[in-house]
Specification:
Number of helices: 12
Order of helices and strands: HHHHHHHHEEHHHH
Number of domains: 1
Strand order of the largest sheet: 1-2
Distance between the termini: 95 Å
Radius of gyration: 27 Å
Largest sheet: 2 strands, antiparallel
Strand content: under 5%
Helix content: over 70%
Length: 272
């Protein structure tokens, strides 16, 4: 596809540039993945916060379901208004995946036809021509695991795919584990997608270039760290807001005339 060529050329240039410093095809892909995830961090931030808000809003959702249990139309309107007020996007977790798809397809083309997208003057191009320096932990990053004939040689490839599945599952459960099973159909659907997607990526990884599988794994690990940091920062902000509200309330109560009444009332009682 012609639309992917600019992405593929950009990835090929960046990959060859990183390779000049690392002299490792695998570590070059890892660094490339980190750079791409930093670029799309605003999407990841929105996704994580939207998912967390969805989990925090489960009690409000249950209240609305009880209130409008006999009127689905009004329930949908109330749910939509609540999502808008709380800044929740039910499809927020899918958006970063959609945005990354052109990158995946472009990287797929680069790994499948590297000589077509990498500068001929680069060290990576020269090594690709003679097929040297392309292994990473006993894996050929240009071929898919399905093309490895010997079962003994397949072990590192299978471990890589297993890590992709496990890290993807952990990433999906990282926020959802704090709440129970939601009653909201949309939330249930998103949880189901979150469980199916890791298995889907594990399935397609068997036929994709191993370098792309390495990209999946690195991205999962990086986003796990991102989500943990985002949740920690947001929880701290909520705690600070709650503590500030308590302090303001205490100051208001202390300054109100009601707080002075008990002493005055005691003095009046003593005089009587």
């Amino acid at each position: 596809m012609a639309i992917l060529e600019p992405f593929a050329l950009a990835i090929g240039f960046l990959l060859s540039f990183i390779y000049d410093y690392t002299n490792s095809y695998g570590f070059s892909i890892v660094i490339l993945t980190v750079i791409i995830n930093i670029i799309i961090f605003p999407l990841t931030l929105r996704q994580t916060r939207s998912t967390k808000r969805m989990q925090d809003a489960q009690s409000d959702i249950k209240k609305l379901q009880k209130e409008y249990k006999d009127n689905k139309e009004e329930l949908n309107k109330a749910m939509a208004n609540m999502y808008k007020e709380k800044g929740i996007n039910p499809l927020g977790c899918i958006l970063p995946l959609i945005i990354q798809m052109p990158i995946w397809f472009a990287l797929f083309r680069v790994l499948r036809e590297p000589l077509a997208f990498i500068q001929s003057s680069s060290n990576l191009f020269q090594n690709l021509e003679i097929h040297e320096g392309l292994s990473f932990f006993a894996m050929d990053l240009q071929i898919p695991p399905s093309e490895v004939i010997s079962w003994g040689e397949r072990v590192p490839y299978l471990l890589l795919i297993l890590l992709v599945i496990l890290t993807a599952l952990y990433q999906q459960n990282q926020i959802q584990k704090k709440s129970g099973k939601p009653d909201n159909p949309q939330a249930q659907q998103m949880q189901m997608i979150g469980k199916v997607m890791p298995l889907f990526f594990g399935f397609i990884s068997w036929t994709l270039p191993t370098g792309l599988v390495l990209y999946f794994l690195t991205g999962n690990i990086f986003r796990i760290g991102q989500q943990a940091l985002i949740v920690k920062i947001d929880d701290k902000e909520i705690e600070n807001k709650n503590s500030n509200k308590k302090e303001e309330k205490n100051e208001t109560d202390a300054d109100s005339p009601i707080s002075e009444n008990p002493r005055k009332n005691r003095k009046k009682r003593r005089r009587k």
